[in-house]
Amino acid sequence: MPDEFAFIAALRAIATHPAAAGLTDDTAQLDLPAGRLILTSDTMVAGVHFRPHDPPDAIGWKLAAVNLSDLAAKGAKPIGCLLNYALSGEAAWDHSFLAGLNEALVHYRMPLLGGDTVAMPQGSARSFTLTALGGGQASTPLRSGAQPGDGLWVTGRIGGAGFSPDGEPHDLARYLRPTPRLSEGQAIAPFATAMMDVSDGLLIDARRLAETSGVAIAIDLDAIPLALPDLDPIAAATAGDDYELLFTLPNGTNPPAPATRVGDVGVGSGLHLRRARRSVPLPASLGYCHGA
Amino acid sequence: MPDEFAFIAALRAIATHPAAAGLTDDTAQLDLPAGRLILTSDTMVAGVHFRPHDPPDAIGWKLAAVNLSDLAAKGAKPIGCLLNYALSGEAAWDHSFLAGLNEALVHYRMPLLGGDTVAMPQGSARSFTLTALGGGQASTPLRSGAQPGDGLWVTGRIGGAGFSPDGEPHDLARYLRPTPRLSEGQAIAPFATAMMDVSDGLLIDARRLAETSGVAIAIDLDAIPLALPDLDPIAAATAGDDYELLFTLPNGTNPPAPATRVGDVGVGSGLHLRRARRSVPLPASLGYCHGA
């Protein structure tokens, strides 16, 4: 059990926010003003959400980033987080994971407030959960608010974290250390009718937005801002791990942060693709489907 | 993936609180008045925190109960929770787990607000995380507040969930479906100088309380309220899974909920045992040590 004590000591060194009480209690105590709390929690499993050979510091960073990306998509400001960690049995791996996680927590100012550390039986896949709390705005854009007539927009560039035929990501840094679009999300949220992050692929996530809003969404493949100039738009738009923001704005409203208009919201249902103004069929797979 | 869709449909049927937005978003949105938020999160792993053959509905109940017990120990009132669930690969097992979890959530009024559902690679141990939010009182008793001169008290009876030599719990219902002491905790919190729940054993948890408060704690073995009359006090006080509340009150203060005085807080450090007013040595193991 000495590995566990050392890991908890390392957690305590990170958890310096008063609400964490030095991780000496079973709970965190957080005094909050009245307002809207945004809650999100993501679990990452080896072999499902990351490759077992990915560097542990990048996996730690990514666990923070994917939760921060969910806060970003609601225009929320990070308040704090809880880490549920399954010890790997390799102390150096655990400490490297924690260093990468902490880099993201410091960079995006999301203090570690608590959580739980457990040992897993030998042979189990590594899995980790982070639960993030954010302070929301008066108006929170959900997946459900898109209206016929809205424009569909996306921040940044799409497809960089996708895999080339040689089995490696096009842009390794982007795959390993995604950037949650927190400031963009905070700027966009007051104007967006709907917003979500692109985690599983632009097409699959756009279809989810259409379904939840009860609208049709048409995407112009020619308009998708590609991370690399020679990417195929369909391949880019079905690759996961972009962590850009996908949102809808009333027609005529310009986004308050750099973004590209990639389509339109209409009456009806489902996802529709266009290329050179002509309808094209949907690909067999719209993205990465590993969970809800 | 049909199992996953059915499971998520079952989650949606449970998550009826408006903040859950029908689990159609990546986040929950919770409007809160100003005040103190109490946060806790527990992960349970098969073979570590429960027996793989325990009934799945009891494991679901227990995951809720252990988190509720942490809220109880701070005098907090449940607000809501997030579930991070690893699908077992057996749909009936998953649904039974969820039914037991939901029973506890309904009974203790802690709405399900969100979380994450993942698939684990074959052969991995089942593990589940619940993160609970509670509304705290102005004064939150931590582990750190015990003062020399205080009395040490415990609610309920101790040792019932311990294992007899035949490898079965003395009181199976108590082991499978622990009762979080929410109303007791809310009544006691304004008066307690320190409070925690007894999850790993009365002795190990009392020593943690002594360490965090920087005091000595003496326990009278004769005073421990035993769950069964023929239990050995040392065996009872080193068995885990009681989920009773252990707390300290200024000398002369009577507890506002049924409880038994089991010892005293003094100047110094460490845990000390007495029997018939004479000091007795500590046993080799003070309780169940499976994590922090």
From TrEMBL, chains A, B:
One of its GO terms (molecular function) is thiamine-phosphate kinase activity. Pfam families: AIRS (PF00586), AIRS_C (PF02769). Residues 147-247 form the PurM-like C-terminal domain. Mg(2+) 4 binds at residues 26, 40, 70. Mg(2+) 5 binds at residue 200. It is an enzyme of class 2 (transferase). Mg(2+) 2 binds at residues 42, 70. The keyword Transferase applies. Gene3D superfamilies: PurM-like C-terminal domain, PurM-like, N-terminal domain. It comes from the Bacteria. Keywords: ATP-binding, Kinase, Magnesium, Metal-binding, Nucleotide-binding, Thiamine biosynthesis, Transferase. It catalyses: thiamine phosphate + ATP = thiamine diphosphate + ADP. HAMAP family: TMP_kinase. Belongs to the thiamine-monophosphate kinase family. This is Thiamine-monophosphate kinase. It comes from Sphingomonas turrisvirgatae. The lineage of its organism: Bacteria, Pseudomonadati, Pseudomonadota, Alphaproteobacteria, Sphingomonadales. The gene is thiL.
